[in-house]
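Pasting as-is:
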Amino acid sequence: QVQLVESGGGLVQTGDSLTLSCAASGRTSTYLAMAWFRVAPGKERDFVSGVSWSGRSTDYTDSVKGRFTISRDKAENTMFLRMDSLRPEDTAVYYCAAAIRDYSSDYVTNMDFDYEYWGHGTQVTVSS
């Protein structure tokens, strides 16, 4: 089992920045792909950003491109999401997700069913 713990959420104003963190522990692996999803009020869970196990590949949903930056510290089994120019529509609970891949699967997927481990989420609220 892999445990994921998110942190860094909060209440901010439009245009502010936040950095979310996700710490992985337990039976982690070198081949741990990670991603961020979010659930906005009244909406389904959506992919935000992901990073492949090596860190060489990243992906973003269109609405956050140019504003959010995903990164990871493999040595510390931690993933980050730097969120700049936040908008009210970014308000959501942000979830960290992870999946153990294999060496040849160094890619990002944006489907929630491709991730087997989930954190409990951290609330991000952006006021207008």
